[in-house]
Amino acid sequence: MACSATKGRQAAPAIDLYQGVMYSTFRANVPPARPAFVILSARHGFIESGRVIEPYEQRMTEARADEMIAELPGFDSIEWPTGIRSILLAGGKTYQRVMRAAIKRRIELGLLNSDVIIEQTSGGIGYQRAQLGAYLRNLEDLTVNHGQEPTKYYNVRLTDKGLKASMPENAMTKATEQRDPRSLNALKEASPATAQIQMRVTPDRKNRYVRQAQAEGLKLTDWIQKHMDRVCKEAGQPDTTMYRENGDNNEQE
């Protein structure tokens, strides 16, 4: 996970020092059995979440990323957990470039399995927060449901015409037989990657969703993502209409 520009004012464990919105999302969604967690700091390189560091100001520029990649043994000297099957790269493209270089190096050194599944956040910060939250909730589902189907994940957008929720396509997704049930793209095999759900929602229903999201301390799109099954079940009621799109064919449901 990438570090954040927003930090506390005093030295603290990295997980507490960083105060950006991605870290708020992490704290709100991380399951009790916390997953292995490594931070990429623009100043320090890869660090353990519990390492105590001072506040600092340094950006992850392309030049800084190049420097880290050229000197990876020095910037990636911590011990990573063993037995990793799935990795989520959470951060901007420049951070992810360094992360991928570190993963490639560790695979070459035999420190990671070559078939490890790599997911990544993408899009705007709102989408990235939703993707991180979904990934963490999927980990909890995997534990509670003993490997059954994890939480469904959609990219959620609100427009003047209503709600649009699309299943994401990930170029890094591996073949079905190689995939881990914790993947963000758990439904990709079941439905086309282009499948979308569109709902025409009245202002009254939208206002109710807003109130419920506020009560849970969530952004509206994050609340819809969390309660997508309930939202979908309400489709077709008098003030809601839902369509599922597959390519150019629209079928009302």
UniProtKB/TrEMBL annotation:
DUF6884 domain: residues covered: 1-67
Entry protein name: DUF6884 domain-containing protein
Organism of origin: feces metagenome
